[in-house]
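Priority: low. Protein: SET domain-containing protein. Input follows.
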Amino acid sequence: MADFEAAIAFLQKEGGKSPEESYFSVFKLAEHQVHCPCGELYCSETCKQAAYAQHHALLCPRSEARETAMGLFLNHTLVTNEIFQLAAKVVAKVLLVYIATHDMAQARGAVDMFCKLPWWEVITSEDDLEEGETLDQYRDKFRSLVCQTFDQFRTGLQENLAHLEGQGELRGLTTDVVLDSCADVLSVDFFSQIIGMFEMNNVSMEIDHPFHALGEALSETSLEEKKEMPPVLARVKAALEKYAEEHKHYCCGEDAHDHENENNECYTLGEDFVGVEGTALFSGICTMNHSCDPNCTVLYTKDGAAHVFAVQDISEGEELCISYIDVDQNVNERQACLREYLFVCRCSRCEEERKA
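Result:
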C-alpha cells in the first residue's frame, strides 16, 4: 500500500495538481469499489449509500436480470433516450426528500428554481417538419413517447415504494400516502418539464480516461524524474509501453522501431482508453443570465469540472453574466441564435446596435 501511495504522490507531483484534483485518485478509489445487487458499480460504500439515499432506493431494479417494472423502464430508456433516466433520478430524489422531511416545498425547491418547458416544446421547431405536417402533429410524436415512458416509470416507482414500505423505509408513510402527496410531481407534465429542463440547461462533457492522462504524465517525465519513480509505477509504465508497442499506437504515426530509445517516447493510448462522454447540469451556472457583452466566461475541463472566470472588471453588486452563444456576430445573427432560448436579448450591446 505504501508503494501505491508513493505512485499516486509521484503522479500528482508530475501533473501539478492537488490530490483532490488529480485524475489519478481514481486508481485509489478502484480498490474499494462495491456493487449493488442490481449490478450498479460504485467507487466506495460511501458512494453507494449516497446514491441509494438520493435516488437509487426508488430506481433500483433489484436484480441484474432487470425483470421488475423498474428494470423494464430502465431497459426502455436505453433504446429510446437515456435522458429519461436523468428525469427519473430527479423525480426519485424529490420523492425521497419528501419521505425524509414530509415537506414537499423543500423536496421540490431545488427543481423549481429552473425555467422548465415540456420536452416536446424545447426540441421541436417548424424547421423539422415534413411536408404537410403541422407543428402540433410533430410534437405529438414526442408527447406520445413521454407518456409511454412515464407510465412505465410510474409503475416501477409504485412497485419500489411498496418494497420500501415492506422494509420499513418510508418513515411512517405508506405507498398510497406518498403517491397522493406527490401527485403533482408524479405527472406526465412534471416529468416532461424535467426533461425539457435538461435539454435547455445541460452541456456536453467529456472526461479523459485515467490511462490517457497516465500515459501523458509518464511520457513527459525526464530521465532524472524516472530515477525517482516508485517501483510499482515503473512496472505500470513498462506495461503501458509494451501495450503501445504491441498495438503500434504512436501519436506521430511513426514506425515502432523509431521508438526503441526511451528518450523518444511518443505513444498514445487514446484509441483504446477513450474518455467518458455524457451531459452535465451545473445548477449554479444554469442560473446565470445571458449577455452579448458578458463579464464572465465558463471553462469546462476534462476532469468533469466547470469554472467561472471574470473577463471584465466587475463592480460590487453587479450581476454576473455569461454568453449562451458566439458573440462574434451582428445583433440579428445573435438574436437568431437565441431563439431556442425563447427570449429576446436586451443587453446594452444589443440595444446600442439596434439604434445604430
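Strands lie at 34-35, 41-42, 203-207, 276-280, 289-290, 296-300, 306-310, 321-322. The radius of gyration is 25 Å.
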